[in-house]
Amino acid sequence: MRLQFILAEIGHGLRRNLSMSISVVLVTFVSLTFVGAAGLLQMQIDTMKGEWYDRVQVSIFLCPDFSDVPSCAGGEATPEQIEAIRAELEGEGLAPYVERVYFETKEQAFESFQDLYGDNSTFAAVTVDQMQASFRVALVDPSQYEVVSETFQGRTGVETVEDQRELLEPLILLLNRSSLVAAGLAAVMLLAAVLLITTTIRLSAMSRRRETGIMRLVGASNLFIQLPFMLEGAIAATIGAAMSIAGLWFGVTYLIEDWLAGSIRFVNFIQADAVWTVAPLLVVVAIGLAAISSVVTLSRYTKV
Prior knowledge:
By secondary structure, the chain is of the alpha+beta class. 68% of the residues lie in helices and 8% in strands. The chain has helices at residues 2-16, 18-55, 79-89, 106-117, 145-152, 165-207, 209-217, 222-263, 273-301; strands spanning 57-62, 98-104, 134-139, 158-163.
C-alpha cells in the first residue's frame, strides 16, 4: 500500500511539473555528456601515450656534406665515426638504457622518403645524396632520452640528436587541454543541473504543501513524506544519464570507429566498449545530483 502510494505521488509530481522534469532530463543529459566525453578523451590520451611512447625512438642524425653545424666541420660522417657511435650504442655503458639500435643508410632514408612523398612533384628533385644516415635508438625507458642526448650531442660526425617525444608532446598537450575544457564545461553544466533539480523539487514540494501537511498530521515520517520528491529528481536525472550514455555510445561508434578510425589509421582509437567503462560513473553522478538537490531543498520545503 505504501509503495503504491509513493509511486502514485511520483507520477503525479512528474505530470504536474512535466516541463521542469523535461528540463532536468535535458540539462542532466548535456552535463553528463560533457563528463563522459572528458573521461573518454582522457582514456584516449592514456591509450596514445601508452602506444606511442612505447614506440618512441631517439634519432641520431649523422653529418651530411652540406651541414654548417660545428660538429660537422669535417664533412660527411666517416665509416670510422659511424662504427664508433655504433659500438658505444651497443656497449655495456648504455646497455641499461638502450633496448635496440637500428642504422638507416642514406639509401634506406631515400626509400622511406619516396614512400611518403614520391607522388608529390615538389620533392621530385630530391636525391639520395641529400638524405642523412642515422641511428634509430629504442630506449628501455623513453623518459631517459637525456642519457643518449648528452652522450652524442656535439660529437664529431653527429649533426643532431632528436627525441621523437618532442613531436608528440604538442598533440598530447592539446588533447589534455581539450580534456580540461570538457571537464570545466561539465562542472558548469553539473551546477546548472543541481540548481534546476533543486528548483523542480522545490516547486513540486510547494504545490503539495496541503498533502504534505495532512500526511504529517496522520503521523507520516519525514522519509515517507520526502521520498516521492527525492525519487522524482532521481528518475529524471537517471533518464538524463541513460540518454548521455546512449549519445556517447553512438558518438564513439559512428564518429570514431566508423569515421576517424577509417581516416586516420596510425592512431589506435578507443572502442565503443570504453563507454561502458564510464557509464556507471555517469549513473552515480546523476543519482548524486538528485541526492544533493534533495538534501538542499526538502529539509526546508516539506516542513509544515
